[in-house]
Design a protein that fits this description.
This protein is an alpha+beta fold and about 500 residues long. It is built from 14 helices and 16 strands. The strands form two sheets. Strands 3, 7, 8, 9, 10, 11, 12, 13, 14, 15 and 16 form an eleven-stranded mixed sheet that branches. It has a five-stranded mixed sheet with strand order 1-2-6-4-5, with helices on both faces. It is globular. Belongs to the serpin family.
Length: about 500
């Protein structure tokens, strides 16, 4: 019996002024590759995996050369997956269709994705090199859901529990319906399954990946083929995604999600000027600060959260939700214990004119997620999972890599923005985003959090400056207010 190992990688990045994108990459490979071999190139999100048994003698140890299509056990043709798409959920007929379209199901899936995002944020750590945390709960949920298609018995139950606490019948069909709703907005999702020629995978897994996640199969022919797919899926924003193919590659699932939107109320570039962003009580950095004296947004003071909440709308059913605690300290664990994003969303008042200052920035974040997923209770997936739905033989997920980024400018945003709040006695309230903040990029219809995170420093490459004495004026000419200087409790290393 031939044994295999799985490489699982998740990346998120936003590389354009109006772009948020997520890349999900899952590779199923033959045994024989070591961590050191794959780790030679740190510029790509490729991480090798292991199994407990050696590979059969005679199995190739290198990246397989492509052969002809008709030799593939799971044939990657456009009509094959549609030939037999019957699944347990589908066999339930109208009952499953009705469940997947019910408002209660949509709310349950939305809450589950929100919960997973907050759990991840609570357990992720910042470093001096990476002071900001940006993740895509949607992308990570899709990754685990697609993996669950190939999981069996206890492993499937474990994944389903962490995805939705076993509260959603017909889960994959229900998630497919939510994805269809998201595709009607400015969120676009592209998926593809690349198969090694001759890979003896399960046809049902290929069929269901197509049915639920639109992941069409194709034969792996070359590194250039995969990089070109990524480049096309991201509208040319990510080039040369991989520098080499993992040795003994059997299966690669790629999911690219991106958002390209514009502010409903744009910022005038003529009013963008140098400002400051307060890192903590003593330190600040220079930033380009966008300014608008009458910016239309929803603004709320939430007494339970003890925070100001603002919603910056985009043109098509998407919004940037910003939460700023009164104390100026963003404690994710404390925040998550009181935060119901959908409920908060519904309580926001109508838009009004607000004087705002928003930092203009472009950031990136990358993190290995195996440790944090293990903390959440998914350690079995990395130790001894049953992934017999993908292929015969012991399979092991040994690593999950997440890479993300965001950008905000006068036209729109990639994944975030938000927060420093001061209420003024003037006719228009003032909302200055000049200290650490929590954000969620939301779909207005489904309330799915596409991206969320905490930004501690929007300009990490800039010199850190000393804050002046309390009561003095800062560089942009308004009084320094110690009550609104932020420091973030975010598990720094």
């Amino acid at each position: 019996m031939t044994l295999y190992y799985i490489y699982f990688s998740l990346t998120v990045t936003f590389l354009d002024m109006d772009l948020c994108l997520t890349l999900l990459l899952i590779c199923l490979c033959s045994l024989g590759t070591t961590n050191a071999e794959v780790a030679e190139d740190h510029s790509i999100p490729l991480i090798s995996l292991n199994t407990s048994q050696p590979i059969e003698e005679g199995e190739s140890q290198g990246t397989p050369e492509p052969t002809t299509l008709n030799e593939t056990t799971v044939t990657a043709t456009s009509d094959l997956p549609t030939a037999n798409k019957t699944s347990p959920d589908e066999e339930k007929g109208d009952s499953c269709q009705a469940i997947s379209r019910s408002p209660d199901t949509k709310q349950t899936i939305t809450a589950a994705i929100q919960r997973l995002g907050m759990q991840l944020l609570q357990n992720l750590e910042t470093t001096p090199e990476q002071p900001n945390v940006i993740i895509s709960p949607l992308s990570i949920s899709l990754a685990l859901s697609q993996l669950a298609l190939g999981a069996k018995n206890e492993t499937e139950e474990l994944l389903m529990y962490h995805l939705h606490e076993n509260s959603v019948p017909c889960y994959h069909e229900s998630l497919r319906h939510v994805l269809m709703q998201l595709r009607n907005s400015d969120v676009q999702i592209a998926t593809r399954m690349f198969l090694r020629q001759g890979f003896k995978g399960k046809q049902e897994f290929v069929n269901e990946s197509l049915r639920y996640y639109d992941s069409e199969p194709a034969i792996v022919e070359s590194l250039q083929q995969i990089n070109e797919w990524v480049e096309n899926a991201t509208e040319g924003k990510m080039m040369d995604f991989l520098s080499f193919l993992p040795p003994n590659l059997l299966l690669m699932l790629i999911n690219a999600v991106y958002f390209k939107g514009e502010w409903k109320a744009r910022f005038d570039p003529n009013f963008t000027s140098k400002g400051v962003f307060y890192l903590d009580d003593l330190h600040l950095v220079d930033v380009d600060m966008m300014d608008d004296t009458k910016h239309q947004l929803s603004l709320l003071m939430d007494s339970e959260l003890e925070a100001q909440v603002a919603r910056f709308p985009f043109t098509k059913d998407m919004s940037l939700l910003v939460i700023m605690p009164e104390s100026g300290r963003v404690n994710v664990s404390l925040l998550s214990s009181h935060l119901n994003i959908s409920n908060l969303y519904e309580r926001l008042p109508k838009e009004r004119a607000v004087q705002v200052k928003v930092p203009k920035f472009k950031l990136e974040y990358s993190q290995e997620l195996q440790e944090v997923l293990t903390k959440l209770g998914l350690g079995e997936v990395f130790l001894n999972p049953n992934l017999g739905g993908i292929a015969d033989g012991p399979l092991l997920v040994s690593s999950v890599m997440h890479k993300s980024g965001m950008e905000i400018n006068e036209d729109g945003a990639r994944a975030a923005a938000a927060t420093t709040t001061i209420i003024s006695r003037a006719s228009n309230p003032i909302f200055h985003l000049s200290q650490p903040f929590f954000f969620v990029l939301m779909d207005d219809v489904t309330h799915i959090p596409i991206f969320m995170g905490v930004i501690n420093n929007p300009n990490p490459g800039a010199p850190v400056l000393q804050r002046g004495d309390v009561g003095s004026k800062d560089k942009v000419g308004f009084p320094a207010d110690k009550n609104h200087m932020g420091s973030v409790e975010f598990n720094p290393k």
